[in-house]
């Protein structure tokens, strides 16, 4: 990781606030909120840990057997919200529909949500679940930062081709997608800077 800048968030204190089943659970004190979401196994936990420069974000007080929607961490100027992965193959249809409804409620009505960091696997075309989630995002109009995870699996020479392909599949511009790798640190510092800047902007607004 020596040639990659460290995440600016690694210097900051981070505190686990709690896990909450209610998509509308209000956080006190109010501060900008960034929610991380993507398919199960997309690399979300690894990315969050790399971003805050911890081996594993601390989790205290979880309620066994209950679906916890929002796993919340507080940094000095904003909250990180870790949402459960969608599209988990083992989950039954009812559970998937319930989660989709919760996500929809969260995106449409959680006014305190500043933005979504949407994780997509750089190696694969978006899945049906990804496309469904994109529809929810578009309907809700929530600002989105899309990141392509596990970028270390894409050789340097294939990166431009890959980002063009993913952008075309998603109907987005290539500049709207950023590569990240929790393994090499690629793109992690930039993502941290983007969150800090967005939080400051929001704080001043
Ligand atoms: P989550 O289910 O979305 O939280 O995904 P995890 O962070 O648990 O990662 C799922 C799998 O992908 C694990 O085997 C990780 O080691 C692997 N993984 C996560 N991030 C990266 C990455 O940046 N590069 C590579 N090569 N593998 C990764």
Biggest β-sheet strands, sense, barrel: 7 strands, mixed
Average of per-residue pLDDT values: 91
Strand order of the largest sheet: 1-3-4-2-5-6-7
Residue runs with pLDDT of under 50 for 5 or more positions = none
**Radius of gyration based on Cα positions:** 16 Å
Number of strands: 7
> How does the helix and strand content classify structurally?
alpha/beta
Could you estimate the helical fraction of the residues in percent?
25-40%
3D shape = globular
User: What distance lies between the first and last C-alpha atoms, to the nearest angstrom?
Assistant: 36 Å
Write the H/E string, N to C. EEHEEHEHEHEH
Name the assembly state.
Answer: single chain
Q: β content, as a range?
A: 15-25%
Bound molecules: guanosine-5'-diphosphate
- Number of helices in the DSSP assignment: 5
What would you note in describing this structure?
With 205 residues, the chain is an alpha/beta fold. Helices cover 33% and strands 19% of the residues. The protein has 5 helices and 7 strands; from the N terminus they run E-E-H-E-E-H-E-H-E-H-E-H. It has helices at 44-52, 93-109, 128-140, 159-170, 188-204, and strands spanning 15-20, 33-38, 70-74, 79-82, 113-121, 144-149, 177-179. Strands 1-3-4-2-5-6-7 form a 7-stranded mixed β-sheet, with helices on both faces. Helix 1 (44-52) crosses helix 5 (188-204) and helix 2 runs parallel beside helix 3 (128-140). The longest helix has 17 residues, at 93-109. The protein binds guanosine-5'-diphosphate. Guanosine-5'-diphosphate (GDP) is lined by residues 40-46, 85, 149-150, 152-153, 181-183. The site of guanosine-5'-diphosphate has 15 residues, from helix 1.
């Amino acid at each position: 990781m020596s040639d990659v800048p460290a995440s600016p968030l690694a210097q900051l204190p981070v505190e686990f606030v709690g896990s909450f089943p209610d998509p509308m659970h209000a956080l006190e004190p109010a501060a900008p909120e960034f929610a991380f979401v993507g398919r199960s196994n997309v690399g979300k936990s690894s990315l969050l840990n790399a971003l805050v420069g911890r081996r594993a974000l601390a989790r205290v007080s979880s309620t066994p057997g209950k679906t916890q929607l929002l796993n919340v961490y507080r940094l000095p100027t904003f909250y990180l919200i870790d949402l459960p992965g969608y599209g988990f193959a083992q989950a039954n249809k009812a559970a998937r529909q319930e989660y989709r409804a919760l996500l929809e409620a969260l995106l449409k009505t959680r006014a305190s949500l500043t933005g979504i960091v949407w994780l997509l696997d750089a190696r694969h075309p978006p899945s049906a679940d990804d496309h469904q989630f994109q529809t929810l995002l578009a309907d809700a109009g929530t600002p989105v930062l899309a990141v392509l995870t596990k970028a270390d699996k894409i050789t340097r020479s294939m990166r431009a081709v890959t980002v063009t392909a993913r952008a075309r599949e998603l109907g987005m511009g290539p500049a709207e997608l950023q590569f990240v790798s929790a393994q090499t640190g690629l793109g992690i510092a930039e993502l941290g800077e983007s969150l800090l800047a967005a939080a400051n902007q929001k704080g001043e607004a």
